Amino acid sequence: MTRTVGVEEEYLLVDPDTGHPRAVSHVALAADPAAESTIGLTGELQREQVESATRPCTTLAEVDRELRRARSVAARAAAAAGSRLAALGTSPLAVEPTLSSSERYREMGRRFGLTVSEELTCGCHVHVAVDSDEEGVGALDRIRPWLASLLALTANSPFWQGADSGYASYRTQVWQRWPSAGPYAPFGSPAVYHDTVQAMIDTETLLDRGMIYFDARLSVQHPTLEVRVGDVCLDVDDAVLLAALVRALVETAAQAWRTGAPADPVRLELLRLAAWRAARSGVDDTLLDPCTWRPAPAADVLGRLVTHVTPALEDAGDLDEVRERLTAVLRRGTGARAQRGAADPQEAVALAVRRTSGDAG
Fold first, then answer.
1. EC annotation (predicted)?
2. Tell me: the pLDDT tens digits for 258-289?
């Protein structure tokens, strides 16, 4: 049976004239109370952003429809608050974020200081159904080498505070300020996974399990493995590609776990370097090849990823579509290249609003 997959996207709320982020999520959410139940539209850490969640989907066509519906509902809520919706990993224009009002977020602000004060980033999280914690941890251990490649595919945050950061995904650099974020070591069993999470909580550094910000984790709320490494994608097409590859990676890893195939013992230090390379250049330069841990052209590494998961893609009926979508993103580039192609950061925001609205329509 094909695993279900769902996608969460975070978006910026921006001024329709200036492009600057606006702290109006509370107004947007109040404008359409039904949106929370129909697409899971919620607030986030900062009032300049909202998050949507699709329903669990079986086919890529369903994922595509759900994402477009989610963006459409979120765009209407944004418009009701006098703003526009933009699928951007970071704001191209300077911003001083406004912390949301929940007590949990206020405590995060007290505990983490400037990390919270400056944290305004938007990611894409893909949930894939797993049958048990045993299967989930077996898959977590075996997808580690490929997570940086997924980051490269989604890179959509080249600007920070009005300047080009030099990175395709500067969101990744900002996000990894959190003490629990980024690549993780193999766990080997659910007991070790849960003991590790509890030990992290017991340090009294993190507030709760929701602050386990590994690049992939067992979901706190759902029977899923949640891959959290990506920027929010500028285009729905790229988010669908991400969902297809994540599902195939999880299925491939779960099958390897069932047969007793060992996880790649690659060290955490190399995974951090792979993530840095992916964040630096996206698909526009070299990545670290998980087959050799040496630099290779991004197109070659992503081609090897597709080869690695081809049986799972074939079983789901996704192989041809994944190849087409990957060819397209390699040809036109990710959201980072599109933003840099704009005349200036303000035009990059306007472009993102048009592309986000175009996807919604």
1. 6.3.2.2
2. 999 999 999 999 999 999 999 999 999 999 99
